[in-house]
Specification:
It is built from three helices and no strands.
Length: 62
């Protein structure tokens, strides 16, 4: 759970940075956010969570 909240803050911060730097428009940001929202409620959510857990666990070994 702690990793999920941390990644939420990281990705949220990145989204704000992209919006402020004009690298991403508001329409694209909305589509990205909605995609993430609906992905989280789909059957792929457990696979995405497992992938992110594996990546976070691999980081200290790099």
């Amino acid at each position: 759970m702690a990793v999920t909240v941390s990644l939420l803050l990281v990705f949220g911060t990145l989204l704000v940075i992209l919006l402020r730097s004009k690298a991403l428009g508001f329409g694209s940001a909305f589509v990205a956010a909605m995609f993430g929202f609906y992905l989280a409620t789909s059957g792929a959510a457990s696979t995405v969570n497992a992938l992110m857990r594996a990546l976070v666990a691999a980081l200290p070994n790099l």
